[in-house]
Structures
1.
Amino acid sequence: MNARLLATFLCLTIASTGCIIVDRDDDDPCCNTPPPARSGDVTLLWTFANAGAGRCADVPEVKKVRITIPGETLHNGGIYACNTAGVDGIVLHDFVPSNYSYTIEALGYSNEVLYQASGSFTVNGDQRLNVNLTPKGGPNSFAYVSWSFEPNTSSPNPNCTQAGVTHVDVSIDGGEWERLACEAGIGSNQVSSPYLAPGPHTIELVGVRVTSMGETPYYYRSGTLNTVAGSPISVSYGLWAVGGLSLRWELIEGSIAKTCAQSGVTQVTIHLYDETRKEYVYGDAGDVQRCDGAPILYRFLRPGNYTVIMDGSGPGGIYYTNRYNSPPSRSVTAFEQPTESGAYTLYLARRN
């Protein structure tokens, strides 16, 4: 017998009037009302994006911090010390349950705004916010980046030494490459990206072995990241082992070799079909190169065999290709990079 039926039975069997049954069956949606929202204190803790450890002690040019919360009157006009009793932050008391927006500005000794951040929070009990302030007037988002290497014979999770990598080169949105010590971003270590506009970005990472004899790319990864204004994100990328392939071409009309100028070919489109992964490296469009741009060195190919197809084209429908002549398959070996002088030559025949 459930509780509701038992209570009813007892009311019928006792000689009393005014028996009231209070139904608190948790399975009844009518009585599962949410608890009321609670007032609370808001703890704001801040750091500084480009200041080493990001503490107030790292930015002596900051004199004070100004907090603005629309609709709220804050103590001392919202002006606080950067550090209070050893804490880079402040506790704001007694907020009624609601949604709030805020702006935090770090001010210099002439009351100029040096760093800033903004966001929002919801009060339903005490709240704690970690806010990262970025320099005023510039991009206000960034990422903490780390990397790892795919398993090898030394380890299922190689460190830099086991991977043979001394440095990692990083480029964001096709910009300049920055060379970093491999250990700076391995495991739990992270490196900070430059300041970025909030939103999606592309990133490339190359694990490089640098010796007195030169440098060789051992690992590679391309990916994306999506940054958020005023709040750093953490991203990690697994780099895969790579090797290289060097290619050149010759244009043939009948039995006669032609230069690019003689043939009228202005560009060559290279299609690399990854036979292991059953896909074209550069999609359907291929990799377009100037006709006179050979040799072409591909340095970030995953190990395996690649079918190589080339199409040469020019004004007036000029067309040379090797696709109808049993396109060759070329092998790529991890950690091995060919030289330009060792480029493999493909012969493109005129088809019109």
2.
Amino acid sequence: MPHARHRWAACGALGEDESVLWPTAAKKALKVGPDREVVSVYPYRSACPASLWRTLITRAEQELTFAGYTNYFLWLEQARFGSALRRKAVQGCRVRFLVGDPDSAMTRLREADEQVPLTLSTRIRVTLAELEKIKGQGGVEARFSSGHAYLSVFRFDQEMIVTPLLTHRVGHDAPTLHLRRHQNDGLFDRFAAHVEELWSQATPVWGGDDHGQA
């Protein structure tokens, strides 16, 4: 039986749950308390396998929500990410992006805090340029929000990746949680409600559209 960290790495690479590859080990580690929605914990977002992100995106059928302040890393780490989003939207999956306003005071404040050459506003504009290419697809929405400046939430149907940002750190240095919904008003539901509130107060990226859809 491989050590836990090796099992988790293999699961991430193969895009399978531990319960499928090593059911005995999974049963021994079965959670029954309020933390059972926590699938995995990573000290850094960069330690979360790109294959896990791809699996979650591929499996989602109803909802994909990307509430990162820039969402820039997704276009770098996920091959043909725009094509995957377009395909999902055509299949009836709702695709939403919450991003920071590149010209806002909050963005300037965070840029001063991060002090990196590739600024937040530049990364946001890269995302906006990529979204512009697929905004004509039904179900693709984008809005500006400042309320998630230090907390990123990415939802894939009933699974979620959450990254709380630390002071003076960029997104790939953020601690990361992989959650799976198992209960009412649990961790998953609370983060989901947070995103919905932000979404309801956010401003559509594409003007003249009350719903943020092209």
